[in-house]
Amino acid sequence: MSKTQPPKTFPGWIRQPWPSGEAFSEVKSLLGDLRLHTVCQSAHCPNQSECWGRKTATFMVMGNTCTRHCSYCAVNSGKPGELDLDEPEHIAEAVRRLGLKHTVLTSVTRDDLPDGGAGHIARTIRAIKASTPETTIEVLVQDFDGKREDIARVQAAGPEIFSHNIETVKSVFSRIRDRRFTYEQSLEVLRIAREYSEGRFIKSAFMLGCGETPAEIEETLRDLKAAGCDAVSIGQYLQPTPKHFPVQAYIAPEQFKEIEALAWSIGFGFAVAGPFVRSSYRSEALLESAYAQSRMAGNELNGASHAD
After folding, report:
1. What does R_g of the chain's alpha carbons equal in angstroms?
2. Half-sphere exposure of 38 toward its Cβ, with a 13 Å CA cutoff?
3. Which pTM was predicted?
4. What pLDDT digit, counting tens, does each position of 84-96 carry?
């Protein structure tokens, strides 16, 4: 793949249907009734129509205002409100009413809280598991300033997948992320999570189209693998509004396939890449993969097949 170039036209493959349908309306109504936020809405996710149509949603814990300001992100930035202490039970109720076999929890970054919200996230995981024990959970968290005890607290609640996104390659990192995030600290979060994984899965994700080079993409994949990641997802960055960081390139679907193949060759147990792939998109696919099924059965694969 050649070095990415600034886009001149909006490619035809970056198109998704407008959200609609009975299932979409049901999810929207339920979220409103329980005063819940989703990253689907707050981050202007292009997969909202498909996911809500399948009655799935990525819940965003601890409100919809983030204490950090990343130039690529559409989530509100500023001073958050008080924690909703009933939120864990409300999310558990939403999971039960939607009949979810798998769900994803993410959150805004809450530097205003002593533990960054780790305790609240852990309570939410436990509330879901108490309400619907059969539901599996992916939790996508901030960096917690690299604090080991906060990462361990989330892992102790027992999510099947622990995720922390590196978001972009090292050379672009400081251009699009809040200065309190660093590339090395994100890798350290994944290393710490690996230590407390007890056989559970570690995952990360990053975006393309921010000005990265092919060599930097491979470097990032190797850094994530060395940090202990089992799985990686890679998607196209889309500029949420004209005020946000501009897209530097639209990556063609066939180029994403090359990058996905590279990830598999590096040794990830699960990898997916495509224009509309997001961190939580079809999250359950990791747990359904041959790699995960084999590992959960106590027979970890070395060099899993891409065929799953």
Report:
1. 18
2. 25
3. 0.86
4. 999 999 999 989 9
